[in-house]
Amino acid sequence: MSHLTEIIDNHKNLDGLFAIVKHYGVSAEFVTDALVQRFEQISKDEGAEKTEEETTYCVEILDSLNQYYARL
Questions:
Q1: Residue 36, number of CB atoms within 10 A of its CB
Q2: Is 72 helix (H, G, I), strand (E, B) or coil?
Q3: HSE-CB for 70 with a 13 A CA cutoff
Q4: What global pTM score does this model have?
Q5: Lower CB density within 10 Å: C or N end of the chain?
Q6: What pLDDT is attached to residue 32?
Q7: What is the CB neighbour count within 10 angstroms for residue 58?
Q8: Closest CA to 35 of 50, 49, 14
Q9: Within 10 Å of residue 65's Cβ, how many Cβ atoms?
Q10: What residues in the chain have per-residue pLDDT under 70?
Q11: Residue 25: left (phi > 0), alpha (psi -120 to 50), or beta?
Q12: Helices and strands per DSSP (H, E), number in the chain
């Protein structure tokens, strides 16, 4: 599967997931908090080897999510 196909499929899957979240009225605060917790867990997981790119990604997305959460 090509990288482009993976990107497109992932966007479709996220659209489906967000449709469910919106349908049940899950708050943005809840989703943001859950994502922050999970990315923090991933970044602190000492047993798993992470590339520098993965570590940078976790730091960047955590920063963005925390900024977003502060705005809510």
A1: 16
A2: coil
A3: 6
A4: 0.77
A5: N
A6: 95
A7: 19
A8: 14
A9: 19
A10: 1
A11: left
A12: 3, 0
